[in-house]
Design goal:
The protein is α/β, with parallel strands linked by helices. It is built from nine helices and seven strands; from the N terminus they run βαβαβαβαβααβαααβ. It binds NADP nicotinamide-adenine-dinucleotide phosphate.
Length: 251
């Protein structure tokens, strides 16, 4: 495979496994991160040691200027062929009546506006309408969009609902311009995101309630993302793939 794949939030968790797999397939990978430079640098080193091509680039997807710099860095590396809108945040558990405007603004700026702006920049580069050669976008949704996450983070769940809708709308908008747009909707995946929401034992405490009685791994989600990015999924667009071990598979 050739061309550049940009993975937002690629330094850790699900994004890091997407970067590993994309690099192993021969893509040039741009690993975006927000603040954990050590994790991103270590990943780039690991990929290079395995013979792959990867570069790290700091940038907050909650900032339009950072996103523009991120895509400028991608342009330096070659032709963009794929975007994984993976960067996403949760917040500490709260009821809606206790949510501040600062919390809501951050949540939607990173999870929703950031994904839109990255998609905008990717479409400008990949759409045949703009002289591009086509490509693929994969968005990270969440089973939370169907569950609603009451008493925990309804704001996060709603931000992922926006991702579901954006996936369908954008897929139709660019379907005849060489770009496929899909999403994965992970369930409970064993990454550090749960600790960042102030519940480090969330995975362990939910395990017994999960249909498979185990959480998913980051790599199990990455495999689905890589398939959606690839030509193997050449007739798949606007799809929202539940990678949740059966959690929240019903509407
Ligand atoms: P994670 O382990 O917390 O990693 C998050 C990554 O996103 C990190 O690389 C982080 O950068 C980056 N990031 C955070 N805020 C950013 C920002 N403003 N700009 C750029 N990068 C930013 O998360 P994960 O569990 O892998 O989740 C990845 C995606 O899957 C998210 O969209 C999440 O909502 C979704 N998801 C996860 C689960 C789950 O159970 N884990 C379930 C459903 C959906 P630093 O390394 O610099 O901090």
């Amino acid at each position: 495979m050739s061309g550049v794949i940009l993975v937002t939030g690629g330094g850790r968790g699900i994004g890091a496994d997407v970067c590993r797999r994309a690099a192993a397939l021969g893509y040039t990978v741009l690993v975006n991160y927000a603040s954990n430079q050590n994790a991103a640098d270590a990943l780039v080193e690991e990929i290079r040691a395995a013979g792959g091509v990867a570069h790290a680039k700091q940038g907050d997807v909650g900032s339009e200027s950072d996103i523009l710099e991120l895509f400028a860095a991608a342009d330096e590396l070659g032709q963009l062929v794929g975007l994984v809108n993976n960067a996403g945040v949760v917040d500490v558990s709260a009821r809606v009546e206790d949510m501040s405007v600062d919390r809501l603004t951050r949540m939607f700026a990173i999870n929703v506006t950031g994904s839109f702006l990255c998609a905008r920049e990717a479409v400008k580069r990949m759409s045949t309408r703009h002289g591009g050669k086509g490509g693929a976008i994969v968005n990270l949704g969440s089973a939370a969009s169907k569950l609603g996450s009451a008493n925990q983070y309804v704001d996060y769940a709603a931000s992922k609902g926006a991702i579901d809708t954006m996936t369908v709308g954008l897929a139709l908008e660019v379907a005849d311009e060489g770009i496929r747009v899909n999403a994965v909707r992970p369930g409970i995946i064993d990454t550090e995101i749960h600790a960042s929401g102030g519940v480090p034992d969330r995975v362990a405490s939910l395990t017994a309630s999960l249909p498979m009685k185990r959480p998913g791994s980051a790599d199990e989600v990455a495999k689905a993302i890589i398939w959606l990015l690839s030509e193997e999924a050449s007739y798949t667009t606007g799809a929202i793939l539940d990678v949740s071990g059966g959690r929240a598979i019903l509407p």
